Amino acid sequence: MALSSTRAKKERLKKEVLLLTLSVLAAVFLAQTSLLNDLLSKTYELKLFGSFVAGIFFTSVFTIAPAAVALAEIAQNNSLWVVALVGAVGAVLGDLILFLFLEDHVERDFLSLLNTSKRKKIFALLNLPVFRRLTPVLGALIIASPLPDELGLAMMGLSKTKLRVIIPISFCMNFLGIMLLGLVARTVV
């Protein structure tokens, strides 16, 4: 019974790694070709929709560069508050998609492949009160920074932060990040 359970977990992990690999390849393809830039430039003219779409792409390491450029351009000629607000709503949607993908089943399957002593050490670390309190804060700071949201969301997932907490944190941190991006864009240009 345990053997088939382990085999099933390995198969599920293989599927998840394949899905992740395909999504990374798709993101790299979008970033390397002009498709993402074309999408963002077409939606740029629809300012609010452009802010929303760029916000969705503002969350991933593979798409943050063109999304940041689009948000900066939109913010230069429009209300910075509106661009940050609508962009943050799009970013929350992007973060939710990432978080739902990164949710604990990937962690659980990965940990099941580790030997028992390593698993115990990792669980002991994850259960430390300091880890539980500090990790969501670090995750929130990573979401606000130019670093990829995937890392911050993974940290929040590891610390078992509830989705009802992640959504407002994601909104506030992405709002601040887009606002700072817009301020820098206005200052530089």
Overall pLDDT score: 77
Number of domains: 1
Helix fraction, binned, reads over 70%
Number of helices: 10
N- to C-terminal separation?
Answer: 64 Å
Radius of gyration: 19 Å
From the spread of the alpha carbons, the general shape counts as globular
Structural class: mainly alpha
Seen as an oligomer or otherwise, the chain set is: single chain
Contiguous low-pLDDT stretches (5 residues minimum) are none
For the sheet with most strands, the description reads:
none
Strand content: under 5%
Q: Which H/E pattern describes the elements?
A: HHHHHHHHHH
Record keyword descriptors for this entry:
189 residues; mainly alpha; 10 helices; 86% helix; 0% strand; globular; membrane; transmembrane helix; transmembrane
